[in-house]
Design goal:
single chain, about 120 residues, mainly alpha, 7 helices, about 0% strand
């Protein structure tokens, strides 16, 4: 049985998707302000590593966990549920743009936008 990472197309697909995703996010007035003064090269690399792990393409993830990585955004910049939802919308739109099937998009959403991840990102 293939992992979600393999079904999506592996490393090359994740790299393209993350790059396109951040192009979209940085144009979204609802959330782009969270990325002001962020090293976007480093951010993209963290996201690629995290998604590779989350989608079954790597046995572990060495980056910060969700709660820790987003705590300063919740406390200092007012990160809320609608911002999390906007990020999820941008991810889905990116995958659609790349021609990913609705079935695989649903699998991605089940992982990336899972309620437990939302709680962790929002430090709830």
């Amino acid at each position: 049985m293939s992992t979600l990472y393999e079904k999506l197309g592996g490393k090359a697909a994740v790299e393209i998707a993350v790059d396109k995703f951040y192009q979209r996010v940085l144009q979204d007035d609802r959330i782009k302000h969270f990325f002001v003064n962020v090293d976007m090269h480093k951010q993209r690399e963290h996201q690629k590593a995290f998604l590779t792990y989350a989608f079954g393409g790597a046995p572990h993830y060495d980056g910060k966990m969700m709660r820790e990585a987003h705590k300063h955004l919740v406390e200092g910049r007012g990160l809320r549920g609608e911002h999390f939802d906007a990020v999820a919308e941008n991810l889905v739109a990116t995958l659609k743009e790349l021609g990913i099937s609705d079935e695989l998009i649903a699998e991605v959403a089940a992982v990336a936008a899972a309620p437990e991840h939302k709680r962790d990102v929002l430090n709830q």
